[in-house]
Amino acid sequence: MDPFLIIIFIVSIIGTFYGTIVGGAAILVVPVLIISGLPPQVAVATTKLNALGLTTSGIYTYNKGEKVNYKIGITLAIPMTIGSVIGSYILLATPDNILKFVIIGIMAVIILFTLLHRKLGIENRKKSITTLGWLTASILSFFFGIYIGFFGGGVGTLLSFMLLAIFGQTFLESAGTRKVMALPAIIVSLVIFTMNGKIAWEPGIVLLAGSLIGSYLGASYAMKKGDEWVRKVFIVISVVFVVEMILI
User: Fold this and answer.
1) How far is CA 177 from the centre of its chain?
2) Total domains present in the chain
């Protein structure tokens, strides 16, 4: 067996273990696929199989813990899926340097806001959502869908923050709900990349297998540890993400 396939399998488990909790699995997986010899575009496309395993396994586990809000997830899945179609065809049309600094800025604001609001994501703040709140979330979901289409790394973190800030969910609830939002977008993006011959199936199937295991283990562990622990992981992964974006 190709030793890179073993490495990819292990990386997939590790990436989806924390990715199913706070997002960012693709940030670890994509560089490994590129190092293994895949062209960047194929590497990004192939990680959709990793995302597919992460979301499906995550939905199953978080649903058992009653941490999935299907009303929010299914409603926002519609604009997100539309966005993913656009993003899949745009691919990386946006200049990398511009996109990178936009993401760094967004993540920096998220980290600062999370540090200043210690109860954000810890206490459930269920409230009636205004029309403006739904509209804002729908617009954001559309643009996050575009991002999922052409890369997707770190989008789970952004989705969680949106669900915390607008819908008052806890970290665990956001982890479950965002997977329902993202699943149709991932499937559509995967179909588009498959039709265009951009999926490397051998490492892709290995990624899928690893992600099913890693996502289940990560979600189960997070459910045991609770929202306070997830908050700390959220901050750490966000900081690492920003540092990586600055360095690459």
Assistant:
1) 12
2) 1
